[in-house]
Design goal:
The protein has 343 residues and is an alpha+beta fold. It is built from eight helices and 16 strands. The strands form five sheets. Strands 1-2-5-8-4 form a five-stranded mixed beta sheet. A five-stranded mixed beta sheet has the order 3-14-13-12-11. Strands 6-7 form a two-stranded antiparallel ribbon. The longest helix has 22 residues.
Length: 343
């Protein structure tokens, strides 16, 4: 299987996107679909204004052991309805927590989190619903194993912005020396900025060791344009950065909880400030459990934790670099690559 530097490099995971139709709609849903039998999952919420669903079910103290899908969606709390469409799709396939003697007696547990993108396309009432969620999970199911993941303004990233810049979906992965794969998928939609105001470099690039400094004239012109757009677009609305971090390492639910927590460091490296009251920053951690951890190396899990934060940082950079500019009744959101392009 080819290595795509994507969440789907974690064998068994699939990703699907769907967009809400309409000329004044700028929002959508992304679904991460687990393999048959589900995955161990956990969540860590750090933002002060989260829009979430079924996150309590992932607490290691509670009964749910495995889940079959995670929903990332636009539409703020309204968009959480997209999870209903994913639940229905799973129920039809008898996938979920068994609650009765018959195979069809299941309750699919579908954790979900939403970003605030209401009105980004100009229509406040355009938001994902159950049909959007179903379209996204069907798109995920239709993909081949290990298929590349579309990035930028797709799915839940359709209406995402980071500061004044256009945000979106990004993904990245790595294979550790042990052979363990760690991947991440993010929806970058932050109140903070991803750009160092002193240099024009994306914060996340510093941690990649690949910071390319824009010409000072280009940077000055970009700063002027961003200042103009802040005045034009008005004060920043509520925002949220979402992430799914996954590994094929066999993790306990408590270990998955730790991975979700440390993965937030990846957001903090790429966006400043982060975890504000008007953010809903949320990270889900998934383990397919296909590769046993090295029992004779007690601290082997540290490598997974470090990699989780690293791939989140890289995924945010890719989300911003993959985005395309949007101009419409909901505002003007330039792409970083266009704002800092060299003609």
């Amino acid at each position: 299987m080819a290595f795509n530097d994507a969440l789907t490099d974690v064998t068994g995971l699939r990703v699907g996107h769907a967009r809400v139709p309409g000329d004044r709609a700028l929002t959508g849903t992304t679904v991460v679909l687990a393999p048959e039998g589900g995955v161990v999952a956990a969540v860590d919420v750090r933002g002060g204004g989260p829009a979430t669903r079924e996150t309590d079910a992932l607490d290691p103290r509670n009964i749910v052991q495995r889940i079959d899908a995670v929903v990332l969606t636009g539409g703020s709390a309204f968009g959480l309805d997209a999870a209903s469409g994913v639940m229905a799709w799973l129920e039809e396939r008898e996938r979920g927590v068994r609650v009765g003697p018959d195979p069809f007696q299941v309750v699919p547990v579908v954790p979900a989190a939403g970003i605030f993108d209401l009105g980004r396309g100009g229509d406040w009432r355009s938001r994902p619903d159950a049909a959007t969620g179903r379209a996204a999970v069907e798109a995920a199911a239709a993909t081949a194993p290990g298929e590349p993941v579309a990035e930028g303004g797709v799915g839940a990233g359709t209406g995402a912005v980071v500061g004044v810049l256009k945000g979106g979906v990004g993904t990245a992965s790595t294979v550790l020396e042990s052979g363990v794969t760690v991947g991440a998928l993010v929806v970058a939609n932050a109140a903070g900025s991803a750009v160092d105001p002193l240099t024009g470099v994306l914060y996340g690039r510093y941690f990649e060791g690949r910071a390319a400094y824009p010409d000072p004239e280009i940077h000055e012109a970009a700063l002027r344009r961003l200042a103009e757009l802040r005045e034009l677009n008005g004060p920043p609305p509520l925002n949220t950065t979402l992430a799914v971090v996954a590994t094929d390492a066999e993790l306990t639910r408590a270990q998955a909880q730790k991975l979700a927590g440390t993965a937030h460091d990846g957001i903090a490296r790429a966006v400043r400030p982060v975890h504000l009251l008007n953010d809903g920053d949320t990270v889900f951690a998934l383990s397919t459990g296909r590769r046993a951890m090295e029992e004779d190396v007690p601290l082997a899990f540290n490598d997974v934790l470090a990699a989780g934060a690293d791939v989140v940082t890289r995924a945010i950079v890719r989300a911003i670099c993959s985005a395309e500019s949007v101009e419409g009744p909901g505002g003007i959101f330039p792409a970083y690559r266009e704002l800092y392009r060299r003609d």
